Amino acid sequence: MQEITNQVVWITGASAGIGESLAKECARRGARLVISARRQEELQRVALETGLSEDNFLVIPMDMEHYDSFSGLVDQVIEKFGRIDYLFNNAGVSSRALAMDTPVAIDKKMMDINYLGHVALTKAVLPHMIRAKKGHIIITSSVVGKFGTPLRSAYAAAKHALHGFFDTLREELWDYNIKVTILCPGYIRTDVSVNAMTS
C-alpha cells in the first residue's frame, strides 16, 4: 500500500471481515478514517479498536441499496475532512444457490448492493477527486468476478459487472491522476459465506 499517513480513507463494509482489517491497517499506517456499514454498533467497535482520536475518524452508517442518501453522506465527509483521498468500495453480500432456483429478486439485490451501490457512491465521490486532481478508488471484487463457479451465478454476475464499469472508469480518469484498482481476493476466512443468501 502507498504512503497513507494523514490521507482520508473511506472504507465501506468496515464492520467485519476484509473491511474491518483494512480499517485497522490503515489506522496503523496513520490514515484518517471514514468507516461505513449498516451496523452502527459494530462500526463504533471498529472505530474504538483502531485507537484513532475522534478528530481522525468518522463513522457513517449506510446501506448500499439506498443510493439517494449517498450525496448527503459524501457531504458529511467533506465537511469534516475537506477531501477524500481513497475510497475502498468493499461492502457486499454473497449468494449461494443454483441459478435455476434463484428468484430474480435475489439477482436484483445482488446487483443493487454489490454493483450499483458502488457505482453510485463512486459517482458521488468523483467530483471531489476530480477537483483535487488526485485520488484512488479501490474495489473489492472476487475471483468469481473473473471466473463463474457453480452456485454463485447472482454473485458472480454482480462482480463481473464491477470489472466492466471500473476498468472503463480507470481509462476515463487517467488524465485526472485518479487511480482505479480492482482487488480479486480468493478464499478468506470471513462470515460473508456464512451469511450468504440462498434461494
Percentage of β-strand residues: 5-15%
Quote the distance from N terminus to C terminus.
38 Å
Q: Can you tell me the residue ranges where pLDDT is under 50 for at least 5 consecutive residues?
A: 191-196
What structural class do the secondary elements suggest?
alpha/beta
Helix content: 40-55%
What is this structure's SSE topology?
Elements: E1 8-12, H1 17-28, E2 32-36, H2 40-50, E3 57-59, H3 70-81, E4 86-89, H4 104-132, E5 135-140, H5 153-173, E6 178-183
Parallel strand pairs: 1-2, 1-4, 2-3, 4-5, 5-6
Helix pairs in contact: 1-2, 4-5
Quick summary:
By secondary structure, the chain is an alpha/beta fold.
Folded structure, characterized:
The chain has helices at residues 17-28, 40-50, 70-81, 104-132, 153-173, and strands at residues 8-12, 32-36, 57-59, 86-89, 135-140, 178-183. It is α/β, with parallel strands linked by helices and 199 residues long. Strands 3-2-1-4-5-6 form a 6-stranded parallel sheet, with helices on both faces. The longest helix has 29 residues, at 104-132.
